Amino acid sequence: MATFDDFLKLDIRVGTIIEVNDFLKAKKSAYQLVIDFGCLGIKKSSAQITELYTKEELVGKQILAVVNFPPKQIADFMSEVLVLGVYSKNGVVLIEPNKKVNNGEKLG
Fold it and tell me: Are residues 64 and 71 in contact, defined by beta-carbon separation less than 8 angstroms?
C-alpha cells in the first residue's frame, strides 16, 4: 500500500499542450507532445492517446502530468513528464482541469 507521504512526493502540475507530432518510432501508436508548464518551462512527453484524440484537438488543451519522474527514453525520444489519463475500453482519456488555470499550477 502507498502512504499519503508517497503521494506527496509526486509533483503533479497543469500544462497546456502547444505542439503535437506523430510518434512513428513508438511500438504502440502515440503522439509526441510539447507542453507548456509555465514557471517550469516547456517539457516533452510521449502519450498513447491516438485512439480518442486528434492532433488538432490536443493543441491548446490543458492536462495534468507528473513532472518529477526521471526522463524516460522511448525509441529516439526523451519523455520528460508523465501525462495522466484513465484507461477506458475506447482508449486513454486525459485528465484535465474543468476550468482554465495557470500553467504550472500544482495539484493539491
Answer: no
3-class secondary structure per residue, 30-83: CEEEEEECHHHCEEEEEECCCCCCCHHHHCCCEEEEECCCCCEEECCEEECCEE
* Domain count along the chain: 1
Q: How far apart are the C-alpha atoms of 16 and 103, rounded to whole Å?
A: 7
Q: Which domain holds residue 88?
A: 14-94
Whole-prediction pTM? 0.94
Instruction: Express each pLDDT in 3-58 by its tens digit.
Output: 999 999 999 999 999 999 999 999 999 999 999 999 999 999 999 999 999 999 99
Residues 68-77 have pLDDT tens digits of: 999 999 999 9
Encoded amino acid at 45, one letter: S
